Amino acid sequence: MLKTDCRDIITKQGVFMRILGIDPGFAIMGYGVIDYFKNKIEVLEYGVIRTEANTEFNKRLLRNYQGINEIISIYKPDHVSMEQLFYNTNQKTVINVCQARGVAVLAVAQKDLPFFEYTPLQIKQALCGYGRADKNQVQQMVRVLANLKDIPKPDDAADALAVAICHANSFREERKKQDLCTSI
C-alpha cells in the first residue's frame, strides 16, 4: 500500500506531476507550469501577471489573486512551489511583495493543493549544483533542463520555471528517500 497524501498520478512507469511554480511579486508575478515524468520536464506555459503602477494596491492584489486562480483552473496542477522571499533593504517593497505572495498562497490553499517553498539558495543548488550561481547561470539551466530554445522572458517567468524545476527534482529525491515508489 502506498503511504502518501499526494495527488500524484501513479503509473506503472513512475510518478507524473504537474507543477505550478510561482515567483511572487505585486507588480509582476511570474508563473510557470511544467509536467514532470520519468526525469523529463515539459513546459506547458510560462508568463507573468502584470499590474499597472497607477492602480490602487488592493486592486493589484486582486489581479494577482485572480490570475493565479485562473492558471490553477486551466492547468490543474498537482503541486505548487514558490520561492521564499529574500529580504532586501527596501522594507516597503518587501512588505508589498509579502502581501502579493499572501494572495497567491491563499489561492493555492483554497484549492487545497500541496504547497512547497524553496529558498533562492535551494533553487540554485537544485538547478546548477551550486548555491551561489548567478541569475544568468540559473536561467541557462532552466533553458537546458526544460529543453527550450531561448531563456524564458521576462526574468520573473524564468524564476517561476526555476522553482517548479527545483520542486520536481527535490520532490523526486524526497520520494526516493521515503521509498514510496519503486520507479520515479
Overall shape: globular
Name the CATH homologous superfamily: Ribonuclease H-like superfamily/Ribonuclease H
Q: Structurally, how many domains make up the residues?
A: 1
Evaluate the radius of gyration: 16 Å
Helix and strand sequence: EEEEHEHEHHH
CATH architectural arrangement: 2-Layer Sandwich
Describe it:
- The protein has one domain (14-176): 2-Layer Sandwich (Nucleotidyltransferase, domain 5).
- It is built from 5 helices and 6 strands.
- The protein has helices at residues 57-75, 91-110, 120-128, 135-145, 155-178, and strands spanning 9-11, 14-23, 28-37, 40-50, 79-83, 115-118.
- It is globular and about 45 Å long.
Structure at a glance:
This protein has five helices and six strands.
Features:
alpha/beta, disordered N terminus, Nucleotidyltransferase, domain 5, globular, 184 residues, 6-stranded mixed sheet
Outline the secondary-structure elements.
Elements lengths: L8 E3 L2 E10 L4 E10 L2 E11 L6 H19 L3 E5 L7 H20 L4 E4 L1 H9 L6 H11 L9 H24 L6
Parallel strand pairs: 2-5, 5-6
Antiparallel strand pairs: 1-2, 2-3, 3-4
Helix pairs in contact: 1-2, 3-4, 3-5, 4-5
